[in-house]
Specification:
Blueprint (H helix, E strand, L loop, with lengths): L2 H14 L3 H8 L11 H14 L6 H14 L9 H12 L12 H19 L3 H16 L1
Length: 144
């Protein structure tokens, strides 16, 4: 496992634990230009997407979910392109959680994956043990 993988999963773990100081400190260590940037969070995102939508979802269902998600944000919805989010969710459901740098805006992709993963963890009611399992599974996928 690389330092980048560990750092990304630490960032996600801090976010899931609502440790915003740790989240900010750990996020500062991420390198958007790194060769594996976004891979570990992408793996966790895909796992969470498939748990949230275990039967999969149609393009229309994904678009509806994205619209509801954006409508629920108190601030920051304008930071996300609904079509890009829908494509990201669809890719996560298909198991395509490639590195963030494969997207036009890797940092925005990382941000979207983090926010959506947090939301799905909350929607699914995953407790601390289940969150650790999700992170461990993502770590294993990232090591491949």
């Amino acid at each position: 496992m690389t330092t980048a993988t560990t750092t990304e999963l630490d960032v996600l773990g801090a976010l899931l634990a609502f440790d915003f100081i740790g989240f900010a400190q750990k996020s500062a260590a991420l390198d958007p230009a790194g060769p594996r940037y976004g891979q570990a969070v992408g793996a966790a995102f895909g796992l969470a997407a498939r748990r949230r939508f275990p039967q999969g979802a149609t393009a229309q269902e994904i678009s509806g979910y994205v619209a509801e998600f954006l409508g629920s944000l108190e601030a920051g919805a304008e930071d996300f392109d609904p079509a890009a989010l829908a494509r990201l969710v669809a890719a996560g459901l298909d198991g395509d959680t490639g590195r963030g740098d494969e997207h036009p805006d890797p940092e925005r992709t990382m941000q979207a994956r983090l926010v959506l993963t947090l939301r799905w963890v909350r929607e699914l009611g995953l407790g601390p043990d289940e969150q650790r399992e999700l992170l461990a599974e993502a770590e294993g996928l990232s090591a491949v």
